[in-house]
């Protein structure tokens, strides 16, 4: 082990060679129901890194697995050897001049690719449900498809070329003539063997026909043998074998896709049928029509999501046999769209429906339908009994057999006691997913699962000649059944391919091909109870792209994984060990608690709530007493804080910012704000409005000397718009409790919120007048606390709704940067903030690579590495001409200013400047 780590560290810095028990455990989980803890985790950023890892693996005789986002559902992204994480250096994006093709690194997220392609009316073909999380490496390596791409637009069909590193460290770039020539010389034997395999396959009429027949429907079981039937050139064969190879044949370092049209006009219909057989009859009629997608949901699937916002209430009263189809049509123009709607309706005319089919062109309705459809799998997971895991299987049938096969599946699930199971899927392709819950802690339950899977495989293969894995990849889950589906001849062909590319069985062994008939029953992931607020988590990883600490320490998924293990040890009377010693920093100190994870989680789990709960448990009695004192004497706390700021500025004047930053371990910031000062009340004439300046703006004044304080700017704006602002009595001694809540001092925080509520109620005459707060995190906290008892608005909300109509703006050219902080995103008021800024400035830059800024109240002073990591991508997205920015939370603005070197201020400053007579500049 020491030799392995030493060999890796000869190239990699310490932070990219992960050896601690906590993070190895955390990375040992993907979205499947398997777990393997790697011996070491290493982050690679370029091909030279990959080559070094391959060389070390050969030297130390150890196997390895490449991992992109870890949304794999069949256990193909885990290992007990070297886990190779694909770093951000592999997040390449290069668009062809005509936008008809795009070259991508394996580390870029699928939805990010589509976001960049959207202005050109293009997208990539694959569209898996996890596209907002999964990365191109995983999409290509699993030949992932999805809702609309079918078998015509997956990675195999839209591949233009790729660059791949083989197990021996050699590189082939199929789009580079020099690389091709060199590879043909250095690997003539490999290419010759591929050519022979292709010739043999195509010459065997029965085998070739069998392969072509198997790939008429979705199929990711085993290797892409269609490469041998479809292509004669060995380079083409090699490239297409890499698609769906799950990292067992080589590492794809770049792939070029043919892009496909993204039709701007869309219409969706959720149609209910009296039973699943009738719904499947409708699918058969829709298959030849110009429809983009048809998703099937059985009654149990509908029940799992029937309480989702926006769905018709009648779903709750549907009969037990009812099934639904989510149908979508698309076109470049509205006229063509209507023609496709008419064609779809005509196709199902005469088929019994519970209610008449009705298409909606409203984008929000369509988005809601798809969000609900994508949430069916996690929703079942959320409803499972604590301690069980959720399993999703993925099969495909010839479409003409879909109805009978679905009924057989339902009967099989009932027979084995999986009464909670749901069935849904991409009906146009005969692709069904069935989801059920399973207890792997009980040997009898494992035996039940084993028996069920044996019967499922017989049903799919023997009765319907379908695919055991349609789009989720073979993985560990179906590897023992590959020969059952394909037969010995074809499976032996796959074994020859694996041996040809990876003779030492170094790359992801046990995945795709596995001679152990019980491999799918080993390394099962434990799911012990931990905390009620996170026990519903199925570890899908959808939360990770939004988390500011992901890849710095832990992601929300990894925090839950780690805490589950610590809880298991505690229950079993085992020592927490190194895991327990490391969790406070990795799990708690560096969690921003922003809750953005809940916006991506299909069941709304906020891992920040877990962090706050655990922080609270760790607080001593003295901490609670100090928390109470802080809330009751907040005026004194604010005064001490301002005095500390003043001392900091005095020290900075003597030694300079850089030494002070080092001495304070990052707590001091470049362009640290001046201490705040008392507000001048502006009563004015007009409509009364209550304004409560949050403590962040009261303690931290402006960053620029001589600039007005935030509270003064907001009062000036209110009076300019014809309002008469009033401050609550004793406002300078009040706090909403946000700072205490973030430390887990919930009771003390709620007491502060109650004191503030009383003052706001008095000032607003029991809610007669609107109330404004100027820090989004505090506003959202108080809105939640008040629960509608008083009309409280975040400043940008009130400005958008009430000030814009009353102010005369002089719109500036810009550019100006906008940071939409996590509280605004969670509250759903981001559109108002964006529209407010765009009303003031023509060119607004909103960096897509930034979610939560990571400053998180006082976290930015205590663990500055958190916000620095969270903002690491912002530098490349802000043009030099953009020298200032706006947001709506004072501490966020401090962190953004310190990290970017550009002054970030409240959006109130921008609005005030643009509403002055003869305004001349947005900054």
From TrEMBL:
Entry's EC annotation: 1.1.2.4
GO annotation terms (biological process): lactate catabolic process
A GO MF label: D-lactate dehydrogenase (cytochrome) activity
Keywords: FAD, Flavoprotein, Iron, Iron-sulfur, Metal-binding, Oxidoreductase, Transit peptide
Record carries keyword rRNA processing: no
Family from the record: Belongs to the FAD-binding oxidoreductase/transferase type 4 family.
Name of the molecule in the record: D-lactate dehydrogenase (cytochrome)
Organism: Candidatus Propionivibrio aalborgensis
């Amino acid at each position: 082990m020491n030799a392995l780590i030493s060999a890796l560290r000869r190239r990699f810095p310490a932070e990219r060679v992960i050896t601690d028990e906590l993070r190895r455990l955390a990375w040992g989980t993907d979205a499947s129901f398997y777990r393997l803890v790697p011996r070491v985790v290493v982050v690679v950023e370029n091909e030279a890194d990959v080559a070094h890892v391959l060389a070390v693996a050969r030297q130390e005789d150890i196997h390895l697995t490449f991992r992109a986002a870890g949304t794999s559902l069949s256990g193909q992204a885990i290992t007990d050897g070297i886990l190779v994480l694909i770093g951000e250096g592999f997040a390449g994006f290069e668009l062809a001049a005509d936008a008809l093709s795009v070259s991508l690194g394996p580390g870029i997220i699928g939805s990010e690719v589509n976001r960049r392609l959207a202005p050109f009316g293009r997208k990539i073909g694959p569209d898996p449900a996890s596209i907002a999380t999964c990365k191109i490496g995983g999409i290509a390596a699993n030949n992932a498809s999805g809702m609309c791409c079918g078998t015509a637009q997956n990675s195999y069909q839209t591949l233009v070329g790729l660059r791949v590193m083989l197990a021996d460290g050699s590189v082939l770039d199929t789009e580079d003539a020099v690389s091709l020539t060199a590879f043909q010389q250095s690997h003539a034997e490999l290419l010759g063997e591929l050519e022979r395999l292709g010739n043999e396959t195509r010459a065997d009429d029965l085998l070739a026909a069998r392969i072509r027949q198997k790939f008429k429907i979705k199929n990711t079981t085993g290797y892409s043998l269609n490469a041998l039937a479809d292509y004669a050139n060995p380079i083409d064969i090699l490239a297409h074998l890499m698609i769906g190879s799950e990292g067992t044949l080589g590492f794809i370092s770049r792939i070029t896709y043919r892009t496909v049209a993204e039709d701007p006009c869309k219409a969706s219909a959720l149609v209910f049928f009296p039973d699943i057989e009738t719904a499947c009859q409708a699918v058969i009629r829709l298959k030849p029509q110009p429809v983009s997608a048809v998703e099937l949901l059985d009654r149990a699937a509908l029940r799992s999501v029937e309480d989702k916002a926006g769905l018709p209430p009648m779903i709750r009263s549907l009969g037990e046999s009812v099934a639904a189809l989510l149908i979508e049509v698309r076109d470049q123009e509205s006229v063509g769209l209507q023609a496709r709607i008419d064609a779809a309706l005509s196709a199902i005319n005469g088929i019994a429906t519970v209610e008449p089919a009705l298409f909606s062109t409203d984008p929000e309705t369509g988005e809601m339908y798809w969000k609900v459809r994508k949430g069916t799998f996690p929703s079942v997971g959320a409803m499972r009994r604590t301690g069980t895991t959720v399993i999703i299987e993925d099969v495909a049938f010839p479409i003409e057999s879909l109805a009978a096969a679905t009924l057989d599946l339902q009967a099989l699930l009932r027979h084995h006691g999986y009464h909670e199971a749901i069935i849904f899927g991409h009906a146009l392709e005969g692709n069904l997913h069935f989801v059920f819950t399973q207890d792997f802690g009980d040997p009898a339950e494992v035996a039940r699962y084993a028996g069920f899977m044996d019967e499922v495989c017989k049903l799919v293969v023997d009765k319907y000649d379908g695919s055991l894995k349609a789009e989720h990849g073979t993985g560990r889950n179906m590897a023992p059944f590959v020969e059952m589906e394909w037969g010995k001849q074809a499976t032996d062909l796959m074994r020859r391919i694996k041996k040809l590319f990876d003779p030492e069985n170094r790359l992801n062994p046990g995945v795709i091909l596995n001679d152990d008939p019980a491999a799918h029953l080993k390394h099962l992931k434990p799911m012990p109870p931990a905390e009620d607020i996170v026990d519903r988590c199925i570890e899908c990883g959808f939360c990770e792209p939004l988390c500011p600490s992901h890849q710095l320490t832990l992601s929300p998924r990894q925090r839950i994984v780690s805490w589950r293990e610590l809880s298991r040890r505690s229950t079993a009377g085992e020592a927490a060990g190194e895991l327990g010693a490391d969790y406070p920093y990795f799990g708690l100190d560096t969690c921003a608690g922003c809750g953005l994870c809940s916006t991506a989680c299909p069941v709304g789990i906020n891992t920040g709530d877990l962090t706050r709960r655990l922080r609270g448990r760790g607080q001593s009695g003295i901490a609670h007493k100090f928390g109470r004192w802080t809330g009751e004497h907040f005026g004194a706390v604010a005064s001490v804080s301002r005095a500390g700021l003043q001392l900091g500025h005095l020290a900075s004047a003597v030694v300079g910012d850089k030494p002070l930053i080092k001495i304070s371990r990052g707590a001091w910031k470049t362009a640290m704000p001046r201490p705040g000062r008392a507000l001048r009340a502006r009563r004015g004439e007009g409509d009364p409005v209550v304004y409560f300046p949050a403590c962040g703006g009261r303690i931290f004044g402006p960053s620029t000397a001589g600039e007005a304080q935030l509270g003064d700017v907001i009062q000036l704006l209110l009076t300019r718009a014809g309002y008469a602002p009033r401050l609550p009595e004793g406002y300078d001694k009040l706090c909403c409790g946000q700072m205490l809540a973030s430390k887990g001092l919930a009771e003390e925080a709620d007491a502060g919120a109650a004191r503030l509520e009383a003052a706001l109620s008095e000032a607003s005459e029991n809610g007669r007048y609107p109330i404004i707060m100027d820090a989004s995190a505090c506003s959202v906290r108080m809105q939640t606390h008040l629960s509608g008892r008083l009309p409280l608005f975040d400043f940008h909300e009130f400005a958008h709704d009430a000030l814009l109509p009353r102010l005369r703006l002089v719109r500036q050219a810009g550019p100006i940067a906008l940071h939409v902080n996590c509280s605004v995103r969670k509250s759903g008021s981001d559109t108002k903030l964006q529209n407010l800024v765009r009303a003031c400035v023509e060119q607004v830059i909103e960096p897509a690579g930034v979610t939560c800024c990571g400053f998180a109240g006082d976290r930015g002073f205590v663990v500055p590495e958190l916000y620095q990591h969270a903002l690491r991508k912002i530098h490349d997205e802000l043009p030099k001409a953009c020298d200032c920015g706006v947001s709506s939370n004072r501490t966020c603005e401090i962190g953004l200013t310190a990290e970017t070197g550009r002054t970030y201020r409240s959006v109130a400053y921008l609005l005030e400047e643009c509403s002055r007579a003869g305004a001349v500049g947005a900054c």
